[in-house]
DNA sequence: TTTTATTACTTGTATTTAGTAAGTAAATAA
DNA sequence: TTATTTACTTACTAAATACAAGTAATAAAA
């Protein structure tokens, strides 16, 4: 089998793609999936609304995650100049994750 | 806006679906995405191969994750009766996550 | 106008989870 | 016989997260 593996590119040689690994470092980080999918569904939300929606996540971590996702260019934080109200939404990069969540939903409905 | 929110089901009332939350508790847990997608691509792997492939994950955690995924019915651990060789693969429930990973790949190729 | 509440955070501490490194029993190869 | 590989386990350290309380700024209620 060692010979076969060497010549046929079997599982011994399998490598995950870097893009994919990096993507999962973001999507797979605790709470990020729920944060992004919530913003995907609602278009935008204030901090309190998001926190209520992902209630098991502490404020402390939610703040940190939102910052990180902003730095990744997935979330955008906006301040209304008139009211001063802060809202969180997705950038095109973030919104483009919707098909991922749709597939998760499909899977979840079938198996969870 | 409070009135409007109450009557129109706007973001204040938004709730994530339980199935979806549970699904993300599994898929979103550190390393699980990479573990499952590796097994998705290769069909089955021995522990050492998997560990090499997800090299940033410690053996200790990989062992724990595989057990958890087995308990979730996503991963199956098989022992060859003849050789005693242990291999890890996916159950139908696990294999059914492929479309999710495909979408992550599509997104990663575009944005990461 | 003083009090109360809300928002979007921050800070300190406890607990949980993960990383590092070394070890082990069983099987296989040299 | 000795060395190596495999699939783990164990002890310890470091990092991430949870819990709880606090805060400055603004808004709403008494």
From TrEMBL, chains A, B:
It holds the Pfam family HxlR. InterPro entries: HTH_HxlR (IPR002577), WH-like_DNA-bd_sf (IPR036388), WH_DNA-bd_sf (IPR036390). SUPFAM superfamilies: Winged helix' DNA-binding domain (SSF46785). It comes from Lactobacillus corticis. Residues 17-112 form the HTH hxlR-type domain. The lineage of its organism: Bacteria, Bacillati, Bacillota, Bacilli, Lactobacillales. This is HxlR family transcriptional regulator. GO terms for molecular function: DNA binding. Keywords: DNA-binding, Transcription, Transcription regulation.
């Amino acid at each position: 089998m060692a010979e076969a593996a060497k010549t046929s590119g079997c599982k011994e040689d399998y490598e995950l793609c870097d893009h994919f690994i990096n993507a999962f470092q973001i999507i797979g980080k605790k709470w990020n999936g729920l944060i992004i999918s919530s913003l995907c569904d609602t278009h935008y939300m204030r901090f309190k609304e998001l926190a209520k929606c992902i209630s098991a996540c502490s404020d402390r971590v939610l703040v940190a995650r939102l910052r990180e996702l902003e730095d990744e260019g997935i979330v955008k934080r906006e301040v209304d100049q008139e009211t001063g109200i802060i809202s969180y939404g997705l950038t095109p990069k973030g919104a483009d994750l919707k098909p991922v969540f749709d597939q998760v939903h499909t899977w979840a409905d079938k198996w969870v």
